[in-house]
């Protein structure tokens, strides 16, 4: 049941996550491994991902010193490397970036009081003309008919790969969910359970549906919710290796 409780809130959370990832992401397992500012601690959000077709990795960091000290250290590092860097300050915090060959490094420092420590997110994007290869290919999971992909994120962990699509679908959520469930069943997917239809906390008039299905080593958790006469769908596929 916990699985479905998470799905009921999934639409809003995934929208926020995708917006964050799309603004700046990083890549593991490549030459994009420079460390402009040495952190005190690191929290990995996703070291090996593909975000909207781009190999990506994102880590949270804590640095010693105030935000202005960290920003200055970032700029000085790239100056010494003879790599142009950019910085922008706003009510949303400080955004610093540097493009080193095919590697785009982005350091995001959210608003916080000056103190002995600074929290930030380090993102790196590997820019390449080569198409990234998904471990869960497009052919593995059919998406809802007439859906438009808003965001597409694949995350690789030891023993398991997950791929999540955020979709915009015309029509009402409950009917889109029923059609999609029938489509998966017709292709050999088995039902793992269904959550009763729920109301969105942010919009009491909006309804949603969530369910889970499995075929072989692949499983999907799916949620459909109404928004402004259309459907927001989240399809989260998982493959165990």
Q: What's the CATH architecture name of the largest domain?
A: 3-Layer(aba) Sandwich
Distance between the termini: 25 Å
CATH superfamily of the largest domain: Mog1/PsbP, alpha/beta/alpha sandwich
Query: What top-tier CATH class of the largest domain fits best?
Result: Alpha Beta
CATH names the topology of the largest domain as Protein Transport Mog1p, Chain A
- How many structurally independent domains? 2
Mean pLDDT value: 84
Helicity range: 10-25%
Shape: elongated
- Summed up, the helix count is 3
Largest sheet: 12 strands, antiparallel
Share in β-strands: over 45%
- Tell me the radius of gyration: 20 Å
Structural class: alpha+beta
Order of helices and strands: HEEHEEEEEEHEEEE
- Which consecutive residue ranges, at least 5 long each, have pLDDT under 50? 1-29
Sheet with the most strands: spatial strand order: 3-4-5-6-2-1-7-8-12-11-10-9
The total strand number stands at 12
How would you summarize the topology of this molecule?
Elements: H1 2-23, E1 41-51, E2 54-64, H2 67-80, E3 85-90, E4 93-100, E5 103-109, E6 117-126, E7 148-157, E8 160-170, H3 173-186, E9 190-199, E10 207-215, E11 218-227, E12 230-240
Antiparallel strand pairs: 1-2, 1-7, 2-6, 3-4, 4-5, 5-6, 7-8, 8-12, 9-10, 10-11, 11-12
């Amino acid at each position: 049941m916990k699985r479905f409780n998470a799905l009921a809130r999934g639409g809003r959370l995934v929208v926020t996550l995708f917006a964050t990832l799309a603004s700046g992401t990083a890549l593991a397992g490549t030459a994009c491994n420079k460390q402009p500012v040495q952190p005190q601690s690191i929290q990995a959000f996703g070291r090996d991902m593909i975000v909207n077709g781009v190999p990506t990795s994102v880590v949270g960091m804590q640095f010693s010193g105030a935000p202005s000290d960290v920003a200055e250290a970032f700029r000085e590092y790239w100056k010494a490397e003879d790599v142009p860097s950019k910085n922008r300050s706003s009510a949303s915090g400080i955004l610093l970036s540097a493009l080193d060959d095919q590697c785009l490094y982005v350091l995001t420092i959210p608003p916080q009081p000056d103190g002995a420590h600074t929290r930030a997110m380090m993102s790196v994007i590997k820019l390449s003309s080569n198409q990234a290869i998904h471990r869960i290919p497009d052919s593995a999971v059919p998406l809802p008919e007439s859906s438009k992909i808003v965001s597409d994120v694949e995350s690789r962990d030891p023993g398991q790969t997950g791929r999540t699509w955020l979709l915009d679908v015309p029509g009402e959520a409950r009917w889109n969910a029923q059609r999609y469930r029938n489509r998966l069943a017709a292709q050999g997917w088995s039902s793992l359970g269904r959550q009763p239809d729920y109301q969105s906390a942010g919009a009491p008039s909006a309804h949603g549906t969530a369910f889970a299905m499995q075929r072989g080593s692949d499983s999907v958790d799916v949620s459909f919710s109404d928004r402004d006469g259309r459907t927001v769908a989240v399809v989260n596929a998982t493959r165990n290796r």
